[in-house]
Known about the structure:
heterodimer, A: alpha/beta, Pyruvate-ferredoxin Oxidoreductase, domain 3, 6-stranded mixed beta sheet, 8 helices, B: alpha/beta, Rossmann fold, 4 domains, 7-stranded mixed beta sheet, 5-stranded parallel beta sheet, binds thiamine diphosphate, binds iron/sulfur cluster
Amino acid sequence: MDTRSILIVGVGGQGTLLASRVLGSLFVDLGYDVKISEVHGMAQRGGSVVTHVRYGTKVFSPLVEPGTADILLAFEKMEALRWIHFLKEQGRAIINSQEIEPMSVIMGAYEYPKDLEDKIRKVCPGAVLFDALAVAKELGNIKVANMVLIGVLARLLDIAPQMWEKAIKTVVPPKTLEINLRAFHRGYNWI
Amino acid sequence: MKRLMLGNEAIARGAYEAGVRVATAYPGTPSTEITEFAAKYDEIYAEWSPNEKVALEVAIGASFAGARAMVAMKHVGLNVAADPLFTVSYTGVNAGLVIVVADDPGMHSSQNEQDSRYYARASQVPMLEPADSQEALDFVKLAFELSEKYDTPVLIRLTTRVAHSQSIVTLGQRAHVPLKEYKKLPDKNVMMPAMARKRHVEVERRMKALAEAANDLWINRVEMGDTSIGIIASGITYQYAKEALPNASFLKLGMINPLPRRLIESFASKVRKLCVLEELEPVLEEQIKSWGIPVIGKEIFPVQGELSANMILEKIAGKAPDVRPAQDLPPRPPVMCPGCPHRGIYYVMKKLRLHATGDIGCYTLGALPPLEAIDTCVCMGASVGMAHGMEKARGKDFSRRLVAVIGDSTFIHSGITGLIDIVYNQGASTVVILDNSTTGMTGHQDHPGTGRTIKGEAVPPLNLVNLIKAIGIEHVRVVDPFDLEEVEKVLKEETQREEPSVVIAQRPCALLSKEMKAPLSIDEDICRLCGVCLRLGCPAIEKKPDGMHINQALCNGCGLCIKVCKFGAIRRAGE
Ligand SMILES: Cc1ncc(C[n+]2csc(CCOP(=O)(O)OP(=O)(O)O)c2C)c(N)n1
Ligand code: SF4
């Protein structure tokens, strides 16, 4: 199989690392060659973060390059637009509509853009854009917003949900497994 | 068994399988996880050393004593460890000694993008460069064999994208490598001029032998394809090039010092156009050109930053990938966390309009608006010496408005000697140690002041106050950085003093404690929109069109903003 690329973006502290761990475990189980790249070791929260996930029969570069991503999974709305040019022509996007203001906006040097959705749709008309944080709140734990997003991703990727469940089980601690699985299924049935 | 593994973890695994007994390091992105993973193996003694020079010296001691030893650091760490490096190149080893150095092209988390391959050349030490996690594991094992066979330390170079990428590895068993006999060998291990002169001859002999062996070493491999273009690459650039030009011919170098000249000449003769792909400096290119081989390199590729598959495709094949332009958006650099203890000190320093020589750590982020609290950042430990230099250049009046700001881990790494200098040479600087009980920047590693080792054992913590007093500083004050009034009073008093002084601001990093206090909120009816809370630079406090607002998902409830709001508009939920 040709190499496929998923770009996961968000703001430090939002749980993007967990998402990439689930994907890594899943693709290894499915027998693919996998490479995942992320810059570790910035302790502080709040910066723009990105994880590159690539899988296929044989993967060379661990990096997703502009114009080559099959899927963009964005944990924050402005970050979605920041990275959207990484999508290829027919690429798909799954976007959490949560807004987090960067310091440059808080200080008034910039404005948080208002027309993000329009700009996103201009590039990717079929983008799935929804409030994953609200879904997570409803489930009773805002931390599982990432798992809701993974659920939507699972639906797009056409890989049996049982395989995803297995991957989630290997990655999340047993204590939070139940709520994570519920969050996953809410996402899976979102579209 | 197959596993998905981070490049850094694979280095640690390689060390384990190679029978390593001692692994040392000082943390530094992107190398930190190597030693964190090494510490998980019961068979390996691992330590955080106070700095890279000590880390290398401990590893040298272990090697001389007969145990295989590995030391890891980031590229700038090798500057600190350069002194022992250049001479251990002369002594050689007893048991194998491997030095892992992680470069950071593109400066994801560094203050410069120096190319450590120059160190391999300058110190006459062989260097290997893996391209993925499997190679990271295999090359460490090979490095130990080469180290012992050729009686030399061996450098392994990583770059961020190899260190911090996961790929699939096959695990092996730990080799049983007994301790080698310890012998007293002054001709080899005591580098005085008479002995060192002889050893230098050995160094040259060894590098010649290695250069010859490199022609047949399995990690230098030719993959013939389309012969119209031949590519020489190592490490991550090999992966980018394979991605961009899968059909080209490749000479993939696993050993990048010394170079296999015969192999390169033979490869060059088989392809029509030869291109060398390397990030940062033209280290390979200049050597290859010096042999009279025409090669394309830095005339089309940059010396700054990282290469990429898209760039290689464009510059070599002339096929510019069709990419939409990036959007122009507000930047989002990292910021100090909500609840960060550094924020209190900086708020007061800004209020007092102090100048500050800064240092490296999370607190370097205080250079950015709105706090803009530090004036400089050069290298670890520099703040202390630089404050002293500023005082000597501009006089004591200037020094009364100046402090040096340094983290606890950085102070232990290389601030202590600067402080000794201030005392010895009668300076009057004030040094502020931001003691957050951890090495924050690199992901919360322990250090001699935290009272815990890398393996989690409790040990007596280094007593900073006693240490500083012993150095000869009489005025040492300990403050809570969130006690703003006290901080202001102490900073005023200490900067006015005619003698040197140290202020230790003690409060743990906000991420060390798992328990979160209830988030705060702003009472709109009381808030007068003065904006003073925004001056803290806390990412949780936002200015919305309808007024100030605290982001409940980000706030950690530290309460610093309650102290700066003059109107009492900020409250904790439920109070
Ligand atoms: C010579 C060298 N080694 C390592 C690093 C990586 N590094 C940057 S800051 C830092 C330590 C920061 O710890 P500390 O001084 O306690 O400040 P904190 O981040 O906790 O605020 C390290 C290890 C470096 N920049 N230079
Ligand atoms: S990791 Fe700790 S020291 Fe660093 S910015 Fe966050 S709270 Fe501050």
